[in-house]
Design goal:
Pfam families: GlcNAc_2-epim. The chain is mainly alpha-helical and about 400 residues long. The chain has 12 helices and 10 strands. A hairpin with a 5-residue loop joins strand 2 and strand 3. It is globular and about 55 Å long.
Length: about 400
C-alpha cells in the first residue's frame, strides 16, 4: 500500500459531514443566529458565555465555504443567519471594523479593534460573497481591507500593527490573548492577513487586491520566514526587532501551505518558486515535531520551559494539509506518509465519535483537557477547512 491509500476522500467527506452536523445541532444558537459562546466536551451549552468576533467569523467562513463546496439548504441557511448576526452585532457602524467581543445578549463587552479579528472578517465576508454571489458581502470585505490599509498599516516601518482602541487610536496592551507577548507586530496576525487577502484577490481580482496580497506576501517572506528559515518568527517590535525565539510548529506548517495558496492566487511564477522553497523547508522541519504516535507537538520555548509536547487539535488539522501539500509539491512519499500518520492520530485521539466534533487536546494528553469543545478560540475553522482541503486535493486540485 502507498501512503496516500490511507488518505481516502470518502473519509474526509464523512469527517466534514460530521463537523457540520455537530455545529448545526449544538454549535449554533437558534435564538440569535450566531454561534454559542462556549460548549463543554459533553455538549452542554454555557448560555452566558462571552462571544468573540473570531469564533463568529470563523463559523461564518465555515458555513459559507461549506455552502459553496457541498451545497445544502442547511449550510446556506446557517451561513445567512451567521452573516446577519456578525454584521448586526459586531460591526461598528461609527468607526468601522468589528469589535472584539459581546455578551450573550449582543451587548459589546470589549470594543477594541484587534487586527487579527478584522482579518477573519475579511476572510468570512469573501467566503460568503463567493458562495452567494453577494455584492454586499463583497463590498464589506473591500471596505474593511481599505480601512485596515488606512488605519492599521505602519506607514513608517511597514507591517500591520496589532491592536487599537474602538476609534483606532493607539492602545498600550496589544496582546491577542493572555499567553502572548505584548508585541506591536506578530506573525499570527500577519499570517491571517495573508489568508484574508488571498481570498479577497481570488474574489475581486482588481489592482487594489493584487497590491494588498503582493505586499503582505513579500513582507511575510522577508520578516517572518526568511530570518529563521525552518521556523517562522513570532513577535516583533514596531521597528522589527525580533522579540522571541520560540518555535510554534502548528504555525510553521500552516504557513507552508498558505504561502503556496497566496502565490497561486497571484499567479506570479517567481513568487510560486519562492513559496514552494519556503513550504518545503518549513515542512521538512515540521517532520521533526511529529511524535511517535503521529501527533504534531505544540511548541518549544526558548527559555527554561522548553518543549510543550501537548497535541492540540488545530496543529493536527494544519499538519494534515501542510504535509500533503508538501507531497504534492515534491512528489516525495515521506510527506504523504506524514499526512497519513497525522490523520490516524486525529481519528484516534481528537475526533469524538460518540458526542461529535474534535477534542481540544489529544486523549493521550490526559489528565489534561481543553477548556471546552467549542468556544472563544475553537470553532469549525481549522478542522473543517482541513477536511475541505483534503477533499479538494484528492479530487485533483494542485498544491
Amino acid at each position: 500500500m502507498t501512503p496516500t491509500s490511507d488518505l481516502r476522500q470518502a473519509d474526509f467527506e464523512r469527517g466534514l459531514d460530521a463537523i457540520a452536523a455537530w455545529w448545526l445541532e449544538h454549535g449554533l444558537d437558534p435564538a440569535t443566529g450566531g454561534a454559542h459562546g462556549e460548549i463543554a466536551e459533553d455538549n452542554a451549552v454555557r448560555a452566558d458565555a462571552e462571544r468573540g468576533a473570531v469564533l463568529e467569523t470563523r463559523a461564518l467562513w465555515f458555513f459559507s465555504a461549506l455552502a459553496r463546496a457541498r451545497p445544502s439548504e442547511c449550510a446556506r441557511a446557517a451561513a445567512r443567519r451567521l452573516y446577519r448576526y456578525v454584521t448586526e452585532t459586531f460591526v461598528d457602524a461609527e468607526h468601522g471594523g468589528l469589535v472584539w467581543s459581546v455578551a450573550a445578549d449582543g451587548t459589546w463587552t470589549r470594543d477594541r479593534k484587534q487586527v487579527y479579528a478584522q482579518a477573519f472578517a475579511i476572510y468570512a465576508f469573501c467566503a460568503c460573497a463567493a458562495a452567494f454571489d453577494d455584492v454586499e458581502a463583497r463590498d464589506r470585505a473591500l471596505a474593511l481591507a481599505r480601512l485596515l490599509e488606512e488605519r492599521a498599516w505602519d506607514q513608517g516601518q511597514g507591517g500591520y500593527l496589532e491592536a487599537f482602541a474602538r476609534d483606532w487610536s493607539p492602545v498600550e496592551d496589544m496582546r491577542l490573548s493572555a499567553r502572548d507577548l505584548n508585541a506591536p507586530k506578530t506573525m499570527n496576525t500577519h499570517l491571517h492577513m495573508l489568508e484574508a487577502y488571498t481570498s479577497l484577490h481570488a474574489l475581486v481580482g482588481d489592482d487594489f487586491s493584487r497590491r494588498c496580497l503582493t505586499r503582505i506576501f513579500d513582507l511575510f517572506l522577508e520578516r517572518f520566514v526568511r530570518p529563521r528559515g525552518a521556523h517562522v518568527s513570532l513577535f516583533y517590535s514596531a521597528d522589527w526587532r525580533d522579540l522571541c525565539a520560540d518555535e510554534s510548529y502548528g504555525h510553521d506548517i500552516e504557513t507552508s501551505w498558505l504561502l503556496c495558496e497566496a502565490a497561486g492566487t497571484l499567479g506570479d511564477a517567481d513568487r510560486k518558486v519562492e513559496a514552494r522553497a519556503a513550504a518545503l523547508t518549513l515542512a521538512e522541519a515540521a517532520l521533526d515535531a511529529l511524535d511517535g504516535a503521529g501527533g504534531l507537538v505544540y511548541e518549544r520555548h526558548a527559555d527554561a520551559r522548553g518543549l510543550v509536547a501537548e497535541r492540540h487539535w488545530w496543529p493536527q488539522a494544519e499538519a494534515l494539509v501542510g504535509f500533503y501539500n508538501a507531497h504534492q509539491l515534491s512528489g516525495e512519499a515521506r510527506y504523504a506518509e506524514a499526512a497519513a500518520r497525522v490523520w490516524h492520530f486525529i481519528r484516534t485521539q481528537h475526533i469524538d465519535e460518540e458526542r461529535g466534533e474534535w477534542l481540544w487536546l489529544a486523549r493521550a494528553d490526559a489528565p489534561k483537557s481543553g477548556p471546552y469543545k467549542a468556544g472563544f478560540w475553537k470553532g469549525p475553522y481549522h478542522n473543517g477547512r482541513a477536511m475541505m482541503e483534503m477533499i479538494r486535493r484528492l479530487e485533483g486540485a494542485p498544491a
